[in-house]
Prior knowledge:
The protein is α/β, with parallel strands linked by helices. Helix content is 32%, strand content 24%.
Amino acid sequence: xxxxxxxxxxxxxxxxxxxxxxxxxxxxxxxxxxxxxxxxxxxxxxxxxxxxxxxxxxxxxxxxxxxxxxxxxxxxxxxxxxxxxxxxxxxxxxxxxxxxxxxxxxxxxxxxxxxxxxxxxxxxxxxxxxxxxxxxxxxxxxxxxxxxxxxxxxxxxxxxxxxxxxxxxxxxxxxxxxxxxxxxxxxxxxxxxxxxxxxxxxxxxxxxxxxxxxxxxxxxxxxxxxxxxxxxxxxxxxxxxxxxxxxxxxxxxxxxxxxxxxxxxxxxxxxxxxxxxxxxxxxxxxxxxxxxxxxxxxxxxxxxxxxxxxxxxxxxxxxxxxxxxxxx
Length: 328
């Protein structure tokens, strides 16, 4: 029986790191003290693009090259490329086509871009895994997640300007006959907040036709805690139907949007510190790639080993929740 496992994971981020002091001073000048907010979100530093030569696509290409080198593969070994992003550098052609060219993939490789906002890379890995299980000619897939978040951050808004970081992650999925790999996933969708986080703020049609003074993301206040009760229910259903307990999960690779959300999940299920992976203090919030930057940290530090269960979770604006279970 074929299974789909994560063969390798790697990341890329810009060299430019900015710590909290820059943002404290920025908002102090506006008579806004964001220190408690930064503590709540778990931020200390983040990587920010400061070069005209870098963008979300270039970061994704670098992550793709790094993960192929780690796996000992060439571009011609890849049969499927999915580029997950909220901020494509181009819509014509798809960003995945540029990745195809950069890694010199073969003509047999299918390419596509995918967008499920911050849930995007988890969704892309889920969909690619399921596609591979039904398509025997797809042996390896390259999934790239990259967001140039600071490009659209609002200098007047701490939740975006002080919170965001820029980074990319890439994984190679491989068909195997060995035990483990992709197990299952679950979703919860409630469009109640669909107009609270928007980019372009006034929609694409109005922005292109008539222009817009609003160049940054629109982020209106909303009840962020509403996502947690369905998250707990999702975890119970996903783990229960696969005969796994919360304590058996080696690492929880969750959205890095908020440290408090990670801690709430830990408290809800009585999890140990060792099970929780948090890198948002160093990377800021990187959007679609954040659960896989957490996976990279867990693998590189030895917290995740082959045969360990890994649970991924993220949330897309609007909102959509996704959780995915793997045996690494």
